[in-house]
Design goal:
The complex is a heterodimer of chains A (116) and B (116).
Chain A: E1 3-5, E2 10-14, E3 19-21, E4 24-26, E5 32-39, E6 46-52, E7 60-61, E8 64-69, E9 74-79, E10 88-96, E11 104-106, E12 110-115
Parallel strand pairs in A: 2-12
Antiparallel strand pairs in A: 1-4, 3-9, 5-6, 5-10, 7-8, 8-9, 10-11, 10-12
Chain B: E1 5-7, E2 10-13, E3 19-24, E4 31-37, E5 44-50, E6 53-56, E7 65-68, E8 75-79, E9 88-95, E10 106-107, E11 111-115
Parallel strand pairs in B: 2-11
Antiparallel strand pairs in B: 1-3, 3-8, 4-5, 4-9, 5-6, 7-8, 9-10, 9-11
Classes of the chains: A mainly beta (116), B mainly beta (116).
């Protein structure tokens, strides 16, 4: 069974600075998807960024980028130029490619606070 | 485009009572998911529907939980009878189905259930 571990329960960063959230996962599969989801306080979860395991190039979405290390099974999220609106829970998630199930396996999350 | 709708937003019940949650996915989305998010944890998939058929219900406690998606559109998740450990946020998500491509899941605001 796949597992996702986020070792940082809480983090804080000053506005405009850069922060990196860590995520490791365990799987015997070779092809899969990895995601970072953001869950703002009292608001719904939204997708931040997605990485396909067969692509070596790290995904980027504006201020958000990932460092995908397949051999190390590591998938960290870097947020540049942090903004107050980035304050949220961040969840790392894994999805197996094989089979019909599109189950997302989530980590426990990292609570990020951006301070003014 | 309207998002995933869920109701009610909050529900408080006594243990051993029954409760039902409703979800209306984004129009045209063939795949619908129910996740359970216990406080301090990431969401866990309970059941995935493809149109009105079940794709994955391996983590659904079938002795007390049931779900249906009649006509392949909206869905209902029921708990009967509820236990204290069922206190959680129940998230509904939907995604379009485009064959082999693993698509983004769009989440609703969730229903927060408290079992006393």
């Amino acid at each position: 069974a796949q597992t996702v571990t986020q070792s940082q329960p809480e983090m804080s960063v000053q506005e405009a600075e850069t922060v990196t959230l860590s995520c490791t996962y365990d799987t015997s599969e070779n092809n899969y998807y990895l995601f970072w989801y953001k869950q703002p306080p009292s608001r719904q979860m939204i997708l931040v960024i997605r990485q396909e395991a067969y692509k070596q190039q790290n995904a980027t979405e504006n201020r958000f980028s990932v460092n995908f290390q397949k051999a190390a099974k590591s998938f960290s999220l870097k947020i540049s130029d942090s903004q107050l609106g980035d304050t949220a829970m961040y969840f790392c998630a894994f999805m197996n490619v094989r089979g019909g199930s599109e189950k997302l396996v989530f980590g426990k999350g990292t609570k990020l606070t951006v301070n003014p | 485009e309207a998002g995933v709708a869920q109701s009610p937003r909050y529900k408080i019940i006594e243990k051993r009572q029954s409760v039902a949650f409703w979800c209306n996915p984004i129009s045209g989305h063939a795949t619908l998911y129910w996740y359970q998010q216990i406080l301090g944890q990431g969401p866990k998939l309970l059941i995935q529907f493809q149109n009105n058929g079940v794709v994955d219900d391996s983590q659904l406690p079938k002795d007390r939980f049931s779900a249906e998606r009649l006509k392949g559109v909206d869905s209902t998740l029921k708990i009967q009878p509820a236990k204290l450990e069922d206190s959680a946020v129940y998230l509904c998500a939907s995604s379009p189905w485009t064959g082999k491509i693993k698509n983004e899941q769009f989440f609703g605001p969730g229903t927060r259930l408290t079992v006393l």
